[in-house]
Amino acid sequence: MDFYLIDPAGPEFHFPVNPAKVTIRREKLTDVVNIINLGQVEFPHGEKVKEITFSSFFPKEYDSSYCRYPDIHDPQEAMNKLTAWMMSKKPVRLMITETIVNVLVLVSAHTTTFRGGEPGDVYFDLTCHAWQELKVRTAAEISVALQGAEPRPDTRPVPAVYEVRTGDSLWAIAKMQYGDGNRWREIYQTNEGIIGPDADLILPGQKLVMPQ
User: Fold this and answer.
1) Residue 67 neighbours by CB under 8 Å, 6+ apart
2) What is the CATH number of the domain that holds 174?
3) pTM for this prediction
4) 105 near 91, Cβ under 8 Å?
């Protein structure tokens, strides 16, 4: 098993000493709301960024009993490399051979420790967060998407149509449709082009739009 951080724009970084363990933390995002008579209630709404942590050290001198290769990094240069990745906004690839871990990450934090009696060795704790690409759509892309979308349905009410029968009057139609004969003027104003100048003269078969 070997641990690598691989910069897409540069060479790979091979950790000289394998960590004793790797911790991968997954956690859902929740909003906690206090509700009377129920107490705290959680409302899930997604997943937090996956966190990967491990600890090891950069030895000053090569030791074949635990070093993975003889041409090891200088401990200070190795820590500077981790710091440079931490300050960068670009992801690097974390790969652990013989496992399924092969993922782009952001180096989020590292802690350095120097121990007495081990001059030159540098111990570290490393935290990485799985990288998630944020895709922002341009105005042109949004415009293209909208052109291909189905038109929004018209939810406005469709005006009712009443067909005049023999013996009808606008007052009688208003009384029947609205329960108020005095609204005959609204019917006339809406249909003046059909009825003509005389509101008292409506003809059987005429189709009048009932105002809302």
Assistant:
1) 16, 17, 59
2) 3.10.350.10
3) 0.53
4) yes
Which pair of structure tokens corresponds to residue 23? 């911790």
Mean of pLDDT values over 16-28: 86
Given a contact cutoff of 8 angstroms between Cβ atoms, the answer to whether 51 and 24 are in contact is yes
Q: Return the sign of the alpha-carbon dihedral for residues 34, 35, 37, 41.
A: negative
CATH number for position 105: 2.40.30.200
Show the tokens assigned to 60.
């000053």
Give me the helices (H) in the chain, please: 75-87, 139-148, 170-178, 184-190, 192-195
Residues facing 127 on adjacent strands? 53, 109
Distances (CA, A) of 67 to 16, 53, 192: 5, 20, 97
Q: Give the count of beta carbons closer than 10 Å to the beta carbon of residue 95.
A: 15
Contact at 8 Å (CB) between 96 and 121?
A: no
Tally of structural domains, the chain: 2
What DSSP line would sit under 67-82, residue for residue?
Answer: -S-SSPPPHHHHHHHH
Question: Distance between CA 70 and CA 157 in Å, rounded?
Answer: 81
In whole numbers, what is the pLDDT of the chain averaged over residues? 82
Quick one: tokens of 34? 């206090």
In-domain check, residue 104:
yes
**56 and 12, same structural domain?**
yes
